[in-house]
Each structure stands twice: as structure tokens, then as C-alpha cells.
């Protein structure tokens, strides 16, 4: 009962009225707030849905998670709270915050954020919410010397400090120092910008890249680095796709070990040697690789090169390295039946002015994406059909997908850090 009251209090009054020093995010204990919302919602319903997948069953006998995991609003909420609001999450590219005073905004679940580089060049991230009446503050991306709220003009520096609160004469017990933007932990790895919403209640400190790579990539960080993934490639462009499917449908499609490629991407399949396809599983990363049929093309155009590497970083980030290219796919959950996939393209320096090659490569890539979108949207419709509830895995090719589902289970099942070791043990048993 006491816990329920505490939870309700946190939901109704997430801002602690007692004022505290600026630079610490005591005002919004986001983690508690979301836990509270979760407790007051349909958590027991979600637990039932969760229990419908058993990660202990070996892949040869296992059934896939049920359709409810891909369609149910309560399950979607559970995912936001237990997956996306915890741990390091990729939100963008360092290209977007190259210079002092550059910024970009985004949304992860219900969290509106702004990432910026302040005047001194320091990387910063904040909840993109005005402390006056909750208006969204910044929009889009670009350069700014300060953020002016479009509603009543409160103005914040790129270090989060409230520089000007308009028309507040007569207001008592108010100190601008206490109403800075609520900070979020931010870091980078290679060309990627990452946020960690879970750690925002800790005092802000510089987060080292090593620390992030350990937490985010585990033992895989070196492998990814040595395969050219964090090298300094030139940023080319971004493409965004809104897809009418659950975010996991897109991930599943990526993680089927090339199973669908000969059927759904015939032109891509002709550039790959399928007998060389392999999948390696790490803690939170899986890497699929395949040799390209390099040298067999009649002209000089060789987008795929000799080897393609497809790295999936749990929960929703893919890094594809092939030939002179790297592209990344960030799968953002927008709702139970909708996601957005953000593609960023990077290219070796020597080719960055070869506009014909770039154009042709992007066209080919786009063709594959459109083919995948059709597949994913078809699957989402099928998942809502009464004729289907669970499916099966092809054990020799869909190991990475099974690994993804086991990780989801482990992550979603984890109620708090006190029970963490129990679920890690359970998860180990399913490997
Ligand atoms: S909501 Fe931002 S100034 Fe009023
Ligand atoms: Fe595909």
C-alpha cells in the first residue's frame, strides 16, 4: 500500500518541489516516474504476455514470441520502460553535432531530447521540455547560441542553464538556477551519439568512450573496431522510412541469417556468396557476415566489395559494412504497429566526391529497403490475423533472431537490479 502511494505520488508529482543545485537532475526522477506509471498500468497483463515465450527451449524446438509481443499496447509500454529507457541507446551521428552551438532533437518513446555541443565544444543532452509549462523547446537540428521557448520566451543556454525567464516579476521562491533543462547522460562511440536515460538521476560527469563501449558492446567492441566500423569514414547522407510494423519485425527481418535474401532481394543476392554466410553471437551483439562476389561484376561498380558485415547491436541498431560503405539503421519504436528506421550512410574518403558511384549505390540500397518495407508491413498484417499466433525458427540460419528474442525476454523480465543476477542466470541457461 505504501509502495502504491509512493508510486502514485511520483506519477502525480514527478517534480520534487524542494529546490536543488543546478546541474543535477533531482527535479525529475524519470526512472522512478516511469516505474510508477508502469506499476499503475497493465504490468500484470504484460507479465502474462512475456511468459508466453520460453527462452530455455532450444532453437530446434522453440516457438517464436507470440503475436501479442508485436501488437499489444501494454507490451509496447513495457518495452519502452524496460528496454529503451535503460542502458545506452543510439540516437544520432556525431556529424549532427560537429561544431560548437550545433544541436539536434529527437524522441525515444515519450522522451523528447535535444543533444548539443555547447559554446565550449562540450557535448550535452537534455530533455527538450521547457521548465515553465512543458512546451517542447528546440525543434529540428542546426546551430543556435541559445534555446528560446516558442511559447513564452524562456531562454536556455546550450549548457542547459535558464538564462532568462520572462515576466516573472512578483513570483516568489524562484531562482533561475533551479530551473535549468533536465540533463541526460550522453556519450559517443565512433561516429555514434548515445544517450542513457537510466543514469540521468546520477550527478553528471564525463563518460569515457571505454566505459560506453564496455556497457554497450561488451566483448564485441574490439571486433567491430578492427572490422573498420569506427574508422573515420565520411558522412554522406541520411534516409528515413516510416514503416507500418512493430520495431521488432524490422529487427527480425534483419536477423534471419540472409534467409529471405534470395527470395526477396534477387539483385542483392547476385552480389553475395551465400555458401559463405555465417552468424556469430556475442552477449548483446550478433554479427552476420557474407563474402561478396567481388571482381565478378562486368563494370567497375562494386558496391558490396569482398565481404559484407552486418552487426546487430541490441536492441535496435544495425551497422552494415560492405565495400567502401558503412550504413547504420536505427529502428525507433513509434507504437505497437509503427516504427521509423533511420539510415545514415558513410563512405571511404577516396570516393566521397564520386557522385555517380554514390548515386548508384544509394539507388541500390533504397531498392533493398523498399523490398524490406513491403515484407515487414506484410508480416505486421499477418501478425494481426487470427490464423497465426506463434512461428518456428530455421535453426541453422535464424540463430541471431532467437538470440534477439532471448535478450528481449531477459531484459523485459528484469524487474529491478535486485533480481538481475537471477535473470542473467536464466538467460545463460538458454544459450
Ligand atoms: S512553456 Fe516555455 S516559456 Fe512557457
Ligand atoms: Fe532484407
TrEMBL record:
Give the chief site where it resides: plastid
* Keyword tags: 2Fe-2S, Iron, Iron-sulfur, Metal-binding, Oxidoreductase, Transit peptide
CDD domains with a match to the protein in the record: RHO_alpha_C_CMO-like
The EC designation for this entry is: 1.14.15.7
Q: Does the keyword Iron apply?
A: yes
Instruction: Kindly list the residue ranges recorded as spanning the membrane.
Output: none
Task: Give the pathway.
Answer: Amine and polyamine biosynthesis; betaine biosynthesis via choline pathway; betaine aldehyde from choline (monooxygenase route): step 1/1
What subcellular locations does the record give? Plastid, Chloroplast stroma
**Which InterPro entries does the protein's record reference?**
Rieske_2Fe-2S, Rieske_2Fe-2S_sf, Ring_hydroxy_dOase_asu_C_dom, Rng_hydr_dOase-A
Q: Which family does it belong to?
A: Belongs to the choline monooxygenase family.
- Supply the name of the protein: Choline monooxygenase, chloroplastic
Naturally occurring in which organism (per UniProt) = Stylosanthes scabra
Amino acid at each position: 500500500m505504501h509502495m502504491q502511494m509512493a508510486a502514485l505520488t511520483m506519477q502525480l508529482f514527478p517534480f520534487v518541489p524542494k529546490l536543488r543545485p543546478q546541474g543535477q537532475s533531482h527535479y525529475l526522477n524519470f526512472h522512478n516516474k516511469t516505474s510508477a506509471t508502469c506499476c499503475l498500468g497493465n504490468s500484470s497483463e504484460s507479465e502474462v504476455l512475456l511468459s508466453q515465450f520460453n527462452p530455455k527451449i532450444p532453437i530446434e524446438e522453440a516457438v517464436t514470441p507470440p503475436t501479442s509481443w508485436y501488437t499489444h499496447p501494454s507490451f509496447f509500454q513495457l518495452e519502452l520502460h524496460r528496454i529503451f529507457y535503460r542502458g545506452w541507446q543510439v540516437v544520432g551521428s556525431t556529424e549532427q553535432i560537429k561544431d560548437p552551438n550545433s544541436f539536434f532533437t529527437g524522441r525515444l518513446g515519450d522522451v523528447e531530447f535535444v543533444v548539443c555541443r555547447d559554446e565550449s565544444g562540450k557535448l550535452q543532452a537534455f530533455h527538450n521540455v521547457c521548465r515553465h509549462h512543458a512546451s517542447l523547446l528546440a525543434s529540428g537540428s542546426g546551430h543556435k547560441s541559445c534555446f528560446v521557448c516558442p511559447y513564452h520566451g524562456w531562454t536556455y543556454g546550450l549548457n542547459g542553464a535558464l538564462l532568462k525567464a520572462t515576466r516573472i516579476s512578483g513570483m516568489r521562491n524562484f531562482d533561475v538556477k533551479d530551473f535549468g533543462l533536465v540533463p541526460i547522460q550522453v556519450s559517443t562511440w565512433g561516429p555514434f551519439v548515445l544517450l542513457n536515460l537510466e543514469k540521468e538521476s546520477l550527478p553528471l560527469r564525463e563518460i569515457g568512450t571505454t566505459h560506453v563501449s564496455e556497457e554497450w558492446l561488451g566483448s564485441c567492441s574490439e571486433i567491430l573496431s578492427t572490422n573498420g566500423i569506427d574508422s573515420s569514414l565520411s558522412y554522406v547522407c541520411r534516409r528515413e522510412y516510416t514503416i507500418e510494423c512493430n520495431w521488432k519485425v524490422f529487427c527480425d527481418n534483419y536477423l534471419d541469417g540472409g534467409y529471405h535474401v534470395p527470395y526477396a532481394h534477387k539483385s542483392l543476392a547476385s552480389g553475395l556468396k551465400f555458401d559463405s554466410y555465417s552468424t556469430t553471437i556475442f552477449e548483446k551483439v550478433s554479427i552476420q557476415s557474407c563474402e561478396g562476389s567481388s571482381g565478378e561484376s562486368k563494370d567497375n561498380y562494386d558496391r558490396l566489395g569482398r565481404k559484407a558485415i552486418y552487426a546487430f547491436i541490441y536492441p535496435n541498431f544495425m551497422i552494415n559494412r560492405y565495400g567502401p560503405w558503412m550504413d547504420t539503421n536505427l529502428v525507433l519504436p513509434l507504437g505497437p504497429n509503427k516504427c521509423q528506421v533511420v539510415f545514415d550512410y558513410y563512405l571511404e574518403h577516396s570516393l566521397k566526391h564520386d557522385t555517380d558511384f554514390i548515386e548508384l549505390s544509394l539507388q541500390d540500397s533504397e531498392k533493398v529497403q523498399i523490398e524490406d518495407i513491403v515484407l515487414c508491413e506484410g508480416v505486421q498484417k499477418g501478425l494481426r490475423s487470427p490464423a497465426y499466433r506463434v512461428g518456428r525458427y530455421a535453426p541453422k540460419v535464424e540463430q541471431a533472431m532467437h538470440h534477439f528474442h532471448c535478450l528481449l525476454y531477459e531484459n523485459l523480465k528484469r524487474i529491478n537490479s535486485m533480481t538481475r543476477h537471477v535473470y542473467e542466470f536464466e538467460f545463460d541457461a538458454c544459450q
